[in-house]
Amino acid sequence: MLTVIPAAVYVLAAYAFIYLPVVVLVIFSFQDGRLPVPPFKGVSLRWYHEVFSDSDLMEALVNSVMVGVVSATLATVLGFLAAHALARHRIPGAVVFQWLLMAPLSVSYLIIGIGLLITFTATGMPKSLLSVVIGHVVINLPLAFGICYSQLGGHQVSAERAARDLGAREWQVLALVSVPMMWPAIAASFFLSFTLSWDEFIIAWLVTRFDVTLPVEIWSLLRSGLDPTTNAVGTVVFAISMALVIVMELFVFRRKTRA
Amino acid sequence: MNRRGLAGWVLLAPALLWVMAFFVVPFAVMALYSVWRREGTQLVREPSLVNYETFLDKSYLLDALFNSLEITAITVVLSVLFAYPLAYILAFLVPRRWQRLGLILAILPFWTSYLVRSYSWLLVLSENGVISQTLVTLGLLSETMSFANSNGATVLGFVHFFTMLLALTIYANLVQISPNYRRAAEDLGASRLQSFIHVVLPLSLPGIMIGAFITFVLAIGDYVTPQILGGNRELVMPQAILLQVQRRADFPMASAMSLVLMLVISAVFLASARWLKMDRV
Predict the structure, then answer these.
(1) Is a pLDDT exceeding 70 seen at residue A166?
(2) What CATH architecture is A56-258?
(3) ipTM score of complex
């Protein structure tokens, strides 16, 4: 009992600290007034109405989903193929390639973004959503590769060998045996990549100009200071991220633990 | 075998080319730019170390580096101190079936947008914000004041974010420690405190170190939290770098400073490498 009470107090205090900004954000997104700070003047949905009728925000939201889906798909496909190559094929210097594929993980997004900005500017490539996709594949490829590589264990080798013995071609082994067996790792790579792309700001900010992603659009909202519209956008983004996490938990990790 | 060898290369090539084209090449371009310089609006393509010299000469640039190091160090220490008890309680004092829920609850706000999370702290810390108004209502403050726009606000925003991350890595490490070690220590007459200091703490060091290192890397490279919460009075390194990019369009200087930042991160990595045994987490 002597340790339980202080422990419970500590946990509650920690949760209070962790949840304080989120709760304030959500509560004041319903503020019936111009300022998202106390006193709370009553419940209103006008800021949500404002968000959903703001065409810039909605466009940015669509852009973010597109960039997320395309970059997560590319990162997952490239990462999976590379993991398969290094885990299953004899490639001289495999350790070097493994190291090279993981390298972007050790560099700050800011520095990756500035490198891309300077390179794109020097080669005359215009700022666009395509540049964001390129940058997001760079940051997510190591994760997708790492996840797939760590899950390409020995237990699939015999199934692949059996398929090969039965006359399957290399691409058939890959598509009909390896991919279905690796499904949980592939799905985890995709969802993690999408989530990181969805929230990524600094690279997207550096390499876009006219068409932007949602975090970049939110950044320009932040310049206007405290504004309940920003609270409402933040709450919507939180809700979408939560939905993603729940989907991931239910369909990816549940499957993995059952298997 | 030969055909399979070729197949391996075909599978590896796309990822490798992507990393070469969009990571290695930009890096080389940045290194090259860092030894060129900008004069007026002209890019002078002659190798020199003038950007690095400027960085060491101009005190406001060097100060940004020290400010970054200071904020990051305080952040790492506070986050570990705050997250460790939370992870410890979750791992050892909470019944097993509630642990997963407790952990999920502890990291749920992690999924709010990174930008919005910093902005949310502004709602709490600004002049009309929750804390200021609460203190005035309680009579502890005579008039409202702002707690934002300071290094302290930046640290607070960081500690909030990284407490969640560290609780996760430390918890993952703690649950792997076999309860037999603690039982053995207690059978041999160690008090709870002794068993913690001599058994649990050393065994959980790998989790702490990895979490601390990730915290260091992410915090020192972050632009958003210092910009939103810290304001523009005392710049950190990422703010100073972006100042070169945006206000002055000085890509050579920005490149040089980016490489300095990377050098600092690498140095810290090398210094702590022997503690970072990734396989232990």
Answers:
(1) yes
(2) Orthogonal Bundle (1.10)
(3) 0.90
